[in-house]
Design goal:
The protein has 583 residues and is an alpha/beta fold. The chain folds into 4 domains: 2-89, Gyrase A, domain 2 (2-Layer Sandwich); 118-163 and 282-394, HUPs (Rossmann fold), CATH 3.40.50.620; 168-277, no CATH class; 458-574, Isoleucyl-tRNA Synthetase, Domain 1 (Orthogonal Bundle). It has 22 helices and 15 strands. The strands form 4 sheets. A 5-stranded parallel sheet has the order 7-6-5-11-12, with helices on both faces. A 4-stranded antiparallel sheet has the order 1-2-4-3. Helix 11 (296-306) crosses helix 12 (341-354), helix 17 (458-478) runs antiparallel to helix 22 and helix 20 (510-519) packs antiparallel against helix 21 (524-543).
Amino acid sequence: MKTKIEGLLATALDALRDQLPQDIALEARVERARDPRHGDLATNAALMLAKPAGRNPRELAELIVAQLPASELVESVSIAGPGFINFRLSKLAFEQEIAAVLEQGAGYGHSSTGAGRRVLVEFVSANPTGPLHVGHGRHAAYGDSVANLLEATGHAVHREYYVNDAGRQMDILAASVWLRYLEALGESFAFPANGYRGGYVQPIADRLVAEAHHSLLRPAAEVFAGLPPDAPEGDKDEYIDAVVARMRELLGEDDYRKVHKLGLDEILADIRNDLEEFGVTHDEWFSERSLTELGLVAECIDRLKADGHAYERDGALWFRASALGDEKDRVVVRDNGQATYIASDIAYHLNKRQRGYAQLLDILGADHHGYVARVRAGLEAMGEPGDSLEVRLVQFAVLYRGGEKVQMSTRSGEFVTLRELREEVGNDAARLFYVLRSNDQHLDFDLELAKSRSNENPVYYIQYAHARVRSVFRQATEKGLDWKPAQGVAALAALDSEHERALMATLGRFPEAVELAAANRAPQNVVHYLRELAQEFHTWYNAETFLVDDATVRAGRLALAEAARQVIANGLALVGVSAPESM
């Protein structure tokens, strides 16, 4: 409906072209009226054009209204205040929108505004050092919902998980697995304070025992001889690094890599399975190590040097990031010759661009706030547009059970996993609750509310509206009452209650809600819309009887109910939530 009214406005503005300066852009933008008493849609076109045109805005509004083509979709047009133009839609306009819902089905609300623009959405990308926890779950739900919204608005979306399979944390995981392996074979020692202590490490160690038997066994006395003290007497980071170095020394690089690979493969398989069960799939799992193995990091470093974007200081190679908008310069090669993660970040994002993606959307944790400027600087140094990178930060999710905060710690192993959360509240509640609030706001996840069967639980309230429609149609079938969409559309004219008009108007807003949510990367807007739609439906359901004797009224109400069900299903699908047949 909004698009059709914008078309009428564009025609009117075009008719006034000769009366306005030729260099003025005539934009026909229509928005929902702020006050429904004034109309359904409104435009401030007259106010926007008044100053450059040198005209009084209200007089200009009158000229625009005079040029509006007659339309059976518009009941009335009025001018308010200094020059706002308000449109009140006709009942026919709403009926046509309901017909569009029934005709387009699962495609209703989708558009081509993205024009096939290629977008790479990187999300979750948790270090493969343990199972996903509830914080990662918010990243997964948010990222997947944003990708769904982009696809629904005509973008070509590629979902990617960046596997941090290189670096210190993976070394610590490998050492943790090996130490549990040694314990399983009878060695006794104090487990490092900074090792991965979660119970998930033991099954990996048990598999190592089954595959390697005693071939990787080394006496504990030999492993820990001469190492610096661990915490609390010493530095836990220095100690675990020494353990890793000793492990590599005693096993040799080939056997060390076997342990490293086993830990990586086992945890990645668990993460992949967890996400798939959560309804989240990635098109590609991109290996950080491949950047080095394919020479991409070295290529970036060479280009930084060749183009004057790098300099040496204190034995290290520095990137002149401050000259490209970052707050300071960054080390890309340490004095020991090792490339930093910043060099890998630049190489990875350059690779994304080289793969043909116009827009790079990274969904990261809130602690990555300094990430944007340096990666944009890196892209610009590589000759790529810095604004091709967009970063959305996801704040923490905190669980509450019985009013008490649930503590989580990935290193100690005392954390609630995403899988445990899903088992407790279900996928649907988890997916919807994760996107209830904006990604840049902290989320308090109320476990008891998520499990409740009450109107205060948004997932229950929305799904119940869908299930109610299905129940009505089952009752109609049991009573032998036939209904066909075409018959229902023809009968919509018989619906004239205040609740029915309100519901029709809300249904017609769905395409706009989707476009706005996609543009703002805000799936919570879809949830808010669905709650409002469910409320409109439940209010109507409680006020009217659907299966009345009057065949025309019955057909019209069933058509409106089916349209509501379809839009609810479409909206829930965008945030990865099911639309149940019964509840």
